Amino acid sequence: MRVLILAAGLGKRMKSKYPKVIHPILGKPMINWVIDTAKNFGETAVVLGHGAEYIKDVIQDDIKTFYQEKQLGTAHAVMCAYDFIDPDDNFLILYGDVPFITIETLKSLEKTHVKGNKDVTILTAILDNPRGYGRILRGEKIRIVEDKDATDEIAKIREINTGIYVFNGRFLIENIKKIKNNNAQKEYYLTDILLFANNIGTVTVEDTFEISGINNRVQLAYVEKEIRKRINEKLMLEGVRIIDPENTYIDVSVKIGKDTVVYPMTFIEGDTTIGEDCVIGPMTRIKDSTIGNNVKIIRSEVEKSVIDNNVSVGPFSRLREGTHLSLNVKIGNFVETKKTFVGNNSKAQHLSYLGDTTIGNNVNIGAGTITCNYDGRKKHPTFIADNAFIGSNSSLVAPVRIGANSIVGAGSVITRDVPDNALALGRARQINKEGWVKHKREDNKNANSEK
Q1: What is the pLDDT of residues 371-390, one digit of tens each?
Q2: Which amino acids does the record list as binding acetyl-CoA (predicted)?
Q3: Which of 113, 350, 380, 439 is catalytic?
Q4: 169 part of a folded domain
């Protein structure tokens, strides 16, 4: 089966300079929700129009695109992709702003279509409030009556047309160009193709949330809240404890192991995997990262990082891109890392910056330590070997290597390599001038009295 996604609309009600279908839902552009579902059924194409260049930037390279220069209705959009229709294959129509249609529902639609050898099979829904939708009128032949054309009696019908169809490819090719625009809007409506169909099938979607369309930011917030609720419920049923689901934000692509606890105001985004028996949050953001088992991350930011088992992070830590924390590492409050590897059992507990750094096993990074990795033009690496001890308030000026089992004295500025088993002191000798403050105050007092 081939799949065509219609995504050429202006989306005026979003009040945005960007196309409606690229607005993200739980970290993924709206249209990519539809594309990911569509690709389960066969070759997929998208009809673009307004803001086509933005949409092309977010969709996969293997998706074919067609362009609808003027938005003249749904049938006209299909006509723009006429060359994509295969007469020997069925043809599924989806929409870029209806992102939550499920694989299961579409499989049911396809099965009904194939089994009955239909010209077209329509996905319908039963709504308590069908206003605005075309009504399904059943008789000797199924018809769709648009809401604006419905009589009072037809308007009472609750079964509506979702706009999602499976067509026989040959039927579609032979009849799509027969549709006329004899209406006030001068548009070509895909529903008019039913006039040429003799064998029409229907499938009614069970969960009407699946056919929720998004036209404005209020609807966007509503559907995002609903899908977030479903994601959290699924995770909880799989063994994750989420303390406050209404205030926990987890993207659909995230994987979390059982017996992990997620506290409120936590955001877990993108391509993130979290293991078992972890404690995450509160007030934590994790994005595109891999987290092992028995990890604690409290009030911290983690992005594009790898954290192995039994690691503790936070509170108020920031792990930036390229960070890798090995077994039993401790990263404490107000510590920032970037492109840094930290070996087993090492720790940086307080107020440090570690950038472009490789740290061995069993290393202690004292409070206030900074790796000075940037010289104003380029970055330089720092290497700290196993069992080294870096005293508090030290500055390691890269490129520099601190040897195994060495000690850097507190308050040092290290500009040269430190050998193994050495003590490095990079500070001036302390000088105490006894009585200096008393004499200085007396001199100031005398100077003021002479004025």
Answers
A1: 999 999 999 999 999 999 99
A2: 367, 373-374, 392, 410, 427
A3: 350
A4: yes
